[in-house]
Amino acid sequence: MSSPYLSAGLARRTESLTSSAIRDLLALTARDDVISLAGGLPATDLIPVNRIAAAAESVLRSPDAVQYCATPGHRTLRSAIAARETLARGGMPVSADTVVATHGSQQALTLLAQALIDPGAVVVVDEPAYTGALQVFSIAEAQVESIPITDTGMDTEELERRLKAGLRPAVVHTVANFHNPRGVTMSDQRRRHLAVLADRYGFWVIEDDPYGEIFFGTTESGIDAPPLPIACHSDRVIRLSSASKILAPTLRVGWFVAPPGVCGAVELLKQGADLCGSSMTQLMAAEMLADTSWLAAHLAVLRREYSSRATALTSALAAEFGSRLTVSRPAGGMFAWAAFEDGTDTGELLPVALDHGVAFVPGAAFASAAQYRHSLRLSFAGSTPAVLADAVRRLGTAHAALTRVR
Ligand code: PMP
After folding, report:
1. Cis ω on the peptide bond leading into residue 181 (within 30° of 0)?
2. Domain positions in the chain
C-alpha cells in the first residue's frame, strides 16, 4: 500500500515526521483551569519586559536594526557572545568569527544536523533525551543511539565501552548543565573524558547549554557555576546556547561556537534557510548581554526565584507522596524529574491529572530506548510557590483517583 504521505503529494522525508509530544501537550494545557508544569517555558513574570522595551527603543535609533544582517549574525551580537563565552571558559579566548547567531538554539541544532549528519549516520544522545534534539535527528534520518544519564551526566564509561565495541558516531549530543529532563549536571571528570573520546574517535560533541546560567545549588547558600564547558577540553566540541531562558524566548536569539569549517558550512545552509536572523532582536540581545551590571542583577533575581520555586515544588511533592515518589533535587535549570515507586503509569495519570487541572510531561516523551513509564518531568520555573503547592495538591487528588479505579 502506498504511503498516505506520498499519495498526498508530499516528500518521502515527511513519512518519518512525528509531532513533539511536548508541543502537543502545550496545546492541551493552554486551558485557563490547568496549572501547567509541562512546558519548558521560563517564568513569564520574570522576563525583563522593561529592559527589553528600552533595548528595542535604543536599537531602533540605528538604521542597522531594520535591515537584513550578515548570515552568521550581526557583528555586535557575535562580539557580545564571544566576550561572554570567553568568561564562561575561564578566560580562554573565543573569537567572534567562531560564533554563529541562529533563530533560537533549536535552529542551531537543525543546521548543525544538516552540516554534520549524513542519512544513516550514527548520533548518540542522552537517555532520556531533550525531545527537540530527538526530533531534529529523526528529520536528519540519523541512526539514534542512546547512552544513559547518571547523576553525574552522560555515562561516558558506557560510551567508551560502546566505542570500543565498534560504535562510530558522527555526533554526540548532550545537555551537560541542568539536563532537560533529568536536571543533573555533568561532572568535570566526565566532561574531560567525553572530550578525550571525541579526539580519539573523531566525533563531534554538541554541548547544548541553554540552562548553565541558572544555577542555584541545593542549599540556602547556593553553589558556584557548573564546571568549565566541555568545549574547554577539545576542539571537536560545538557549544550551543540561547537568550531564551535568561532574557526571553520571543527574541529567538540562540548561537553556537564552532571551528571555522563548521561555521562556514552552517553559514551556507543558513543562507538557504532564512538569509539571516532578525537584526532588531539580535541587536537588542547584544545590548542586554553586554550590559553586564544589569545582567548580573537580573540573573541573581532569576537564580533566587527559581531556587525558591524548586524548593517549593520538591517539598510539596515530598509531603504529598512520601516514599511513593522519588524526586530529584534540582540545583539549577527549570526541571525536577520524578519517578513513582508504586507502579503508577504516568501516561495513564496524565489524562486524569488534566481533569483535575494540572499537567506534567510523562517520562515516555523523552525516551528513545528506555521506557520511563513511571517517570515524569515537572517544571517549577513558571509558577509561584503558592501555585506550585496547589498544583501538587491537584496531582495528589488525581493520583488517588487513578489508584482507586485500578
Ligand atoms: N536545547 C535544549 C536542551 C532546550 O531545552 C531548548 C528549549 N527548551 C532548546 C535547546 C531550544 O531553545 P531555543 O530555541 O529557544 O534557544
Report:
1. yes
2. 17-40+296-405, 61-290
Decide: helix, strand or coil at residue 338: strand
| C-alpha closest to that of 386 among 294, 287, 316 | 316
Pick from 208, 240, 251 the residue to mutate for probing ligand 1's pocket: most ligand atoms within 8 Å of its CB. 208
The CATH class that applies to domain 17-40+296-405 reads: alpha beta
Per-residue confidence (pLDDT) for residue 12, from 0 to 100 = 82
Residues within a 6 A CB radius of ligand 1: 40, 104-106, 130, 132, 175, 180, 208, 210, 242, 244, 249, 254
326, three cell numbers = 522519588
**Distance from Cα 65 to the centre of ligand 1, integer Å:** 25
Nearest of 307, 337, 314, 343 to residue 126 by alpha carbon: 337
pTM here is 0.95
* pLDDT at residue 39, rounded to an integer: 85
Report H helices in 146-291: 156-164, 188-201, 260-274, 279-290
From the CA of 130, give the closest atom in ligand 1.
3
> Ligand 1 centroid vs 160 CA: distance in angstroms?
27
Q: Which CATH number, 3.40.50.300, 3.40.640.10, 1.25.40.10, 3.30.70.60, labels domain 61-290?
A: 3.40.640.10
What are residue 124's DSSP bridge partners?
A: 145, 172
pLDDT at residue 362, as a whole number: 94
Mutate to test the pocket of ligand 1, among 180, 250, 252, 379 (most ligand atoms within 8 A of CB): 180
Q: What's the confidence (pLDDT) of residue 7?
A: 63
Residue 220: per-residue pLDDT: 64
Atom of ligand 1 nearest to the CA of 245: 15
What pLDDT does 19 receive?
72
